[in-house]
# Entry
Amino acid sequence: MKADAPPVTAAPAARRLPMWAAWTIGIGCVVIAWFVALVTPDADTAQAPFVVSAAVGESATGRNIEVTVTDVRRAEHVAAGGWSAEGNWVVVDVEAASVLSEVQLNRAVLVVDGTQFSASERPDSIRQASLTAGIPLSGSLAFELPEGLDAGDASLEIALAPRGDTRLDSMIVLPFELAEVAEVGDTELLATEWTNL
Amino acid sequence: MSEPPVAERTRARRRRLTWLRAAGDRVPTAWFAAIGTGVFLLATAAFGGLATAAEPPLAQLRPGTTHVNDMRSLTVERAVLIDELPGSGTSPDKGERVLAIVVDVENHWTEPLRPEGTGSVAESFSVAGLDEPSSSARMDDATIGPVLQPGVPAQVVYTWAVDAEDFAAGDHLVVTLNDLSLYTGSFVTSGTSWQDPTPSATMTLVIKDVGAGVDAEAGDEG
Amino acid sequence: MTGWWRSNAIALGAIVLLVPATYAALTWNEWSAILQSSDSRPIALEPGDTLEYAGATIGPVTSTYSELPSAPRGTKIVTVTVKIDPGGPPIICDAPVLHESGADPREWKASSDLGRDWDPDLRTFCSSEETGPYQLDLDYLVPDDASGPFTLELGSAAGRPEFVSAVVDP
# Structure
């Protein structure tokens, strides 16, 4: 005798995703992941400094630094106090102050077509000066360039860079054309002192 | 009955392979290891053997020749023994004198180079019998520890405070010139720096003794 | 669906408890060392009061605006006087900082080249050689737009993580 199967409500037949759908979703995920990987910034980009663009005569304010570049000039002969030197020099006059606390201006770099030149430590300059919150300090920076470097895309980078670290903090950048900078032949660096003395 | 040509070719291939397999079966397994080792040793011998190759001798440079590498070009000008050299950054104690080596350097990199420290110009040359220089200074304006800007040549004097008896006029100093490699930091370090000084040339200098020093002063102080 | 929740109730309850607890434990672990070794807990000091800190008696703290020759235009000088009675061992404090609270908190360090006449009894740092009471006279050069409220923050390695936050009202 056939046993009667107890009446059971038929469970819905297990529906599986068709093969083509599964493969499409899978490959779609891989493609999306590839795009995400392309867009994700690498460590250098993710930790890059925050650039604040500056122009000559205008003040540029970062998180804890405020800089006004008042002049950019080139000279064959520079003097500062009792020191002087010959060469291919670029002199930049700046007024700098900090915004929140007392810090040191550790990074003053001129980048010309990818080559970095740091502010020369040979003369007394505003390089590595202590900046006070809200009180501007005037001074000059001198960059010694190789003979014959007369043109190129230049940018002046100024930042606090404690221990040389520029990551994730403001950096004031002044872009200019080296060929357009006025050549004065003979120049003197400004003494580092309060702007409003 | 002639078989279709495809089937015949397949069978011919199989026959060739079976011969190979049969031949392989005849060789005792242990012999394979011995044959392999023998072939390896023969090949090694053909390439020169297992002993470490002798290092090629370093190039000998004449004093005054410029040593050029990716990082900088360096010309060792002279080595001078002097009682004291004010402005050089080295102050000798009693019984010590200053050994000064004057070099012409030009930075070939795209970033400024430090004169001393890690990844510096001082790592790109070493003097037999001496440690790192105690100080460096520009010859023209006596700037201590001058930073070398890319493409800007400078004359720098590296000084050591040495015992007066250790060196004398006419002594030969062997200067080894090194090449460094540019490393880009990754993972926990960032930035690029020059590391791994590897000797690439040597130069022998004769020390001049200028006694109390009349001509070898490092620039004016004013 | 209720069946799934009920059968996994214990596991879900554990997650709800443990995830915040793990976060809290890791945070406390990392931060407690940092907070312990830095100046993180201010002790307020009202004008005219004194308090005990790092074994010394600090206060009263008085302040005034002053004029000095080398100050640039557009600035003012806040001269703060701090009386210190060092205990034993004598307190060694970090350079006191003038702090301005507000929307953008700012701080300044004491300046010593404002043109004040040389006075051999003038002290600008906590001396470990003094045994009797002395006072610190600190000149702070601040911009004209600094209006306060100012506090003087004085910390000492011995008193960490607490530091004295004295109200400065020139």
